Sequence to fold (127 residues):
Amino acid sequence: MSNIFIRKKWLFVFIIFIILLSGCERNNPGRLNDYNLLITNNSPLDLKSIVVTVEENNDSGLIDNDIGYKDIAKFHMKNGKQSFKITINPKENYSVSKEFSETFNTEEIVEYQIIIESNEITIQRKL
Fold:
C-alpha cells in the first residue's frame, strides 16, 4: 500500500515539475523579440557562416554558422539606426559582402535573403 502511495507522490511531483518548466517558456515575453534581424539562405549554397558587422564595432561581428538551404540566421541588433555589413562565407565559393542601413526596434523584425541572380550571389532585403 505504501509503495503505491510513494509512486503516486513521485508521479505527481514529476507532473508538476513538467508543467512549471513548460509554463516558464511560454510566459517569457522577451523570447519572441530576441532576434530582430533574420537572414534566410534561399540559395542552394551551404554557407560556412554569415557575419554581421555593425559600423560602430568594426572589430567584432555577430556570427551564425552552418546555414543550409532555407535555413535562417538570427541576430539581435541594438535599437535605433544601424549601419552594418552582411558577409556570407560559402563553403566552396568566394565571400560576398554588402552594406546596409536600417532602423531596428524590438517590435519589428527586419528580414534579408541570400539568392542567386544571373549567376551571382546577392543579399537583398525581403519586402
